[in-house]
Amino acid sequence: MKLTIQDLRCIRGGRVVFDALSFAMKSGSGVELSGPNGSGKSSLLRMLAGFIPAAAGRIHLEGGDDEASLGEQCHYVGHLNGVKRALSVQENLAFWAEYLGGGDIESALAAFDLESLSHIPAGLLSAGQARRLGLARLALVNRPVWLLDEPSVSLDTGSRKLLSTAISTHINAGGMVIAATHAPLGVKFSHTLKLDAGGQS
């Protein structure tokens, strides 16, 4: 499997955020996005996930499901956790399993140390626990491409290790990870892509 990004341009609010952005990655690799705030890290991830359109350029996943869009073959973790506060931890994962077409709830709970919290309403979780619940979707359903935007926010040292293990396991199993982060994730990425605030990569 190969993900190719060619001559990608992003325009937000009339401003060119980045232009002529190109890179490629294969199965079993990871790309760390770096750069100052406003350089387009989040915009790039949202573009790959299909949430915002590219002003120009091409995004192609070779060897994936031809019947599904790239976004449908990705896990996207953004700044928000995407949890329903009134539902328990387990009910949140059951909702996502149904939405995403199946999943192993027990494995997802174990991957992010949520078993003891499974019946707690999400609204009662701490910031770090809620973040772990949001991240648990990564272990719930297998998708080849992970798009992670500051995934370690609110996590303590132990939880960051769980995230690091999940990312490394996914890459070692042939998955692809693109992560924007200001904090070390404890993962050796294949490449680092630096975005500049001036709009060039």
Explain the overall architecture:
This protein has 201 residues and is an alpha/beta fold. It contains 6 helices and 8 strands, in the order βββαββααααβαββ. It has helices spanning 41-48, 89-100, 105-111, 127-135, 137-140, 157-172, and strands spanning 2-12, 15-26, 29-34, 56-62, 74-77, 145-149, 176-180, 191-194. The strands form 2 sheets. It has a 5-stranded parallel sheet, sandwiched between helices. A 3-stranded antiparallel sheet has the order 2-1-4, covered by helices on one side. The longest helix has 16 residues, at 157-172.
- Low-confidence segments, given as residue ranges, are none
The fourth-level CATH homologous superfamily is P-loop containing nucleotide triphosphate hydrolases
- Can you count the beta strands? 8
> How many domain units?
1
Q: What sort of overall outline do the alpha carbons produce when their principal axes are compared?
A: globular
Rg of Cα set: 17 Å
- Provide a count of the helices: 6
**In the CATH classification, which architecture applies?**
3-Layer(aba) Sandwich
CATH topology value: Rossmann fold
Order of strands across the main sheet: 5-6-7-3-8
- Multimerization status: single chain
Order of helices and strands: EEEHEEHHHHEHEE
Q: Please state the structural category.
A: alpha/beta
Query: How is the main sheet built?
Result: 5 strands, parallel
Percent in strands: 25-35%
The CATH class name reads Alpha Beta
**Terminus-to-terminus distance:** 24 Å
Nearest-integer average pLDDT? 93
